[in-house]
Amino acid sequence: MGYDLVIFDNDGVLVDSEPLANNVLAGYLTELGHPTTYEESVRDYMGAAVHRVRDLVQERTGERLPVDFDETLHARTCAAFEQELKPVPGVEEVLGALTAHGIGYCLVSSGSHERIRVAHRVAGLDGWFEEEWIFSADDVGEGNPAPDLYLHAARQMGVEPARCVVIDDSPRGIEAAAAAGMDVYGYTALLPAEQLPGATGYFGDMMQLPLILQLPV
């Protein structure tokens, strides 16, 4: 295998959260007087930190979102997770194969540490990730598409960026990983490859990943 560290995006790659989270976000923005469809939420905000929502709404409308927007969105998203969230099919087999072969892995996310932990508890993935393997956009100055979060994760894990490979399903995440000097594979379960430019390669079934990484399952 050509990599020493596999860096997973969380939402949509480890947990099947993007449909839930984007439905919640679109509904909340619409409720606040900023009509947003699910498709628009995916297009504009998928893979981005919540400050992008605030910035883009203000840029487009001149209006500020409520001061408690972040907290309310977090609470509604976590409530949706509690009801329906599941792991991405095949991801536990992939994590098991990496563990069996002694390959390091970690995750990065635009979500908060609390949101990540809620998602993993509900989806049954909390046993796979030590706290020091979890990195949030809250840990760095700027989230996707800046490379800061990926570089921070590599540094904390003690691996050079060129020895890392990223698995991501959002245009902003792929842009950030590439800017960090890492190979990145686009996971196309939600968005097609043509909407994920700049990746090293693409795959649509998590069970294909061990083959891409030259690992037997």
Structure notes:
It contains nine helices and six strands; from the N terminus they run E-H-H-H-H-H-E-H-E-H-E-H-E-E-H. The chain has a six-stranded parallel beta sheet with strand order 3-2-1-4-5-6, with helices on both faces. The chain is globular, with a radius of gyration of 17 Å. The two termini are 14 Å apart. Helix 1 (18-31) packs across helix 2 (38-45). The chain has helices spanning 18-31, 38-45, 50-61, 69-84, 91-100, 113-123, 148-157, 171-179, 209-212; strands at residues 5-9, 104-109, 134-136, 164-168, 183-187, 201-203. The chain is an alpha/beta fold. 43% of the residues lie in helices and 12% in strands. The longest helix has 16 residues, at 69-84. The model has no long low-confidence stretch (mean pLDDT 93).
Question: What is the topological layout?
Answer:
Blueprint: E1 5-9, H1 18-31, H2 38-45, H3 50-61, H4 69-84, H5 91-100, E2 104-109, H6 113-123, E3 134-136, H7 148-157, E4 164-168, H8 171-179, E5 183-187, E6 201-203, H9 209-212
Parallel strand pairs: 1-2, 1-4, 2-3, 4-5, 5-6
Helix pairs in contact: 1-2, 1-4, 4-6
